[in-house]
Design brief:
- This protein is globular.
- The protein has helices at 21-29, 79-90, 100-113, 119-125, 136-151; strands at residues 3-6, 9-12, 47-50, 53-56, 69-71.
- By secondary structure, the chain is of the alpha+beta class.
- A hairpin with a 2-residue loop joins β3 (47-50) and β4.
Length: 152
């Protein structure tokens, strides 16, 4: 049985090596914040961090994660994650919210690496994270506001 470290906790999962991480997170571990969108790594709804880097959990396989630390939206912590969450609330960034766990995880990774992102930085970091409600302008504004708050 594979062992997955998710949000700092080791989980023994009864899963084949070719099971997508998304299903292990949702169905076997019971964390439902990571969403299924397309199943083809095209929409970003399933974005998690693998050793701090954003990755699509629908196309990441359980058998490939030995020694890798997985962070889901539920486990995102620290000043950057908390600031993003607060800004998202303060600015009413999401509309329906379905894509937002993936958007937040991508934004957290961006601000952790690039504290003062340009619009081009934001566009590149969130490329492929789709929002069917088209709140891209609010997402970009939210990231800029989070960067300002983190700088203060």
């Amino acid at each position: 049985m594979p062992k997955l470290n998710i949000n700092g906790v080791d989980h023994q999962v009864d899963a084949p090596d070719d099971m997508p991480l998304l299903w292990a997170i949702r169905d076997l571990v019971g964390l439902t914040g990571t969403k299924f969108g397309c199943g083809q790594a095209l929409c970003g709804a399933c974005t998690v961090h693998l050793d701090g880097q954003p990755a699509r959990s629908c196309q990441t396989f359980v058998g490939d994660l030995k020694g890798v630390k997985v962070t889901t939206i539920e486990g995102a912590q620290g000043k950057v994650a908390e600031t993003i969450r607060q800004v998202w609330t303060d600015m009413d960034v999401p509309q329906c919210g379905y894509c937002q766990s993936g958007q937040v995880m991508a934004a957290v990774a961006l601000l952790a690496e690039t504290p003062k992102p340009t619009d081009d930085d934001i566009d590149a970091a969130l490329d492929g994270n789709l929002c069917r409600c088209a709140t891209y302008h609010r997402i970009r504004a939210g990231i800029h506001e989070a960067a300002r708050r983190l700088e203060a």
